[in-house]
Amino acid sequence: MDHTIQYGTAAAGVISILTLYLALRRRNTVRNIPGPTSPSWLFGNMLQLYLSPTYGDYEFDWQRIYGPFYRTKGCFGQDKLMISDPVSLQYILNSPHFKFGPTMENGIHLLFGIDSIIGVNEEDHKRIRAALSVGFTAAAVRDYIPVFVKAAQMLTEQLEESSGKSSNICPLLSLATIGTISEVALGYSTEDLGEEFMKNNFQILTIAFSQSATQIVADAIGARLPGWVWRAAIHLPTATCKAIRTAKRLANELGNQVLREKREAAEQGLDIDTDLYGRLLDLHRLDRTKNTLTEAEIVAQTAIVMLAGQDTTANTLAFGLVELARAPEFQDRLRAEIHSALCASDGGSVLYDNMPLLNAFIKESLRMFPAEAFTDRVAVKDVVIPLTDSLITTTGERISHIPVSKGQNITLAIASYQRLESRWGEDAQEFKPSRWLDGQTFKGEAVGPYANLSAISFSTPPTVSHMITV
Ligand SMILES: *[C@@H]1O[C@H](CO)[C@@H](O)[C@H](O)[C@H]1NC(C)=O
Ligand SMILES: *[C@@H]1O[C@H](CO)[C@@H](O)[C@H](O)[C@H]1NC(C)=O
């Protein structure tokens, strides 16, 4: 009897020591992953990462030196993993054990109401994603072509007007993008949206995309505040909070108005499935599949639809156009391809698939300049991340799996992944549309659904978290 107790105690002791050892080891593994030195305790490597003079200055160097899986320092000395390894990325993106980083999650909560955007659980999330995909089928995209043509014509006219003068084309691209999104999603032109909406939208984007040392620290502090502080903060009487409150109200009114009009049109027997909201409402009304959104959920998408795609798309496009300007010979060939496709279509619809150079140009722009260069995740439980190739820790150990603890902060380095030499070749840092034409592009497993580019270059909303200091 006594012996049993003694053995039991001994076993419990061994187990708890082992658990402690494993827990420490987990923590130490991350600490022992090589990475750049941190110039400051307060900022860690974050100023280098977020405020580098040109796109990815430090990031691409770090990747060359430390490989696709390294450690950086966040604000206040925390260890952060920077990951562009395709096997790790794929694992993290498909695993339920990671969620958005705290800054992003708080931002989404604040602006959009996270439950209707991401879903309250995994199943809900899948339902929302499946329902939204009705707007992006090949048939749907074909319906949008006239909208794209209109936006392109408007943009061309404006660019011609400003030709010769040195002017910033980003606002023009941004306006063309929001016009397109609005037509495709709601069936509304920018005039239909109204001046107040457009002004507020612009204000929110300015807040969301502004970046400074103060913002970076504010985000780091904000990330450590409990959710109720964020929920309370929205009621502060600052200009930013007021803009966010207005954005929510306007988006809500707009969403409701669009649905009301579509419902009435449908009751009169008119076709409403000509845009995303019409399609979503049809799915809901006709109830043909289990993946439908309720009307309230459709309305809740409005804020994110009207914000998320705008500057992101416009920025990628702006970078792409700069590259096009640098390559006059390619530009001429691309123009000729478009002209001959237009002639061949003879006024009918132009087949995008018949324009290989255009496809290559778009893919290469998305590869080199994804709108979201990186995005944060956090582990929701202890988990082991696999690697493509093993790495050697600072203590000289060779490891092929990285154990991380619950709460570990991770950056998914999308832009770095898309310039990884092991995947794209030695010329990965070059803008070279031809890589998409000669069939040499890929090595290994795909990460994303479109052209093996990262899915997240399309699916993440902007980080809107800057309300605390502004
Ligand atoms: C992850 O980030 C949050 C917010 O910035 C921070 O509170 C937490 O301590 C970090 N986790 C780790 C393991 O460093
Ligand atoms: C993605 O890469 C794989 C090879 O890894 C290739 O077979 C596939 O065609 C690529 N997908 C696209 C859409 O380019």
UniProtKB/TrEMBL annotation:
Q: Which GO terms describe its molecular function?
A: heme binding; iron ion binding; monooxygenase activity; oxidoreductase activity, acting on paired donors, with incorporation or reduction of molecular oxygen
TM regions (residue ranges): 6-24
Instruction: Give the main localization category.
Output: membrane
UniProt-annotated location(s): Membrane
Pfam families, per the entry = p450
Q: Which GO terms describe its cellular component?
A: membrane
Q: Which InterPro entries match?
A: Cyt_P450, Cyt_P450_E_grp-IV, Cyt_P450_sf, Cytochrome_P450_monoxygenase
Among its keywords, does the record have Cell membrane? no
Give the family per the record.
Belongs to the cytochrome P450 family.
Name it.
Answer: Cytochrome P450
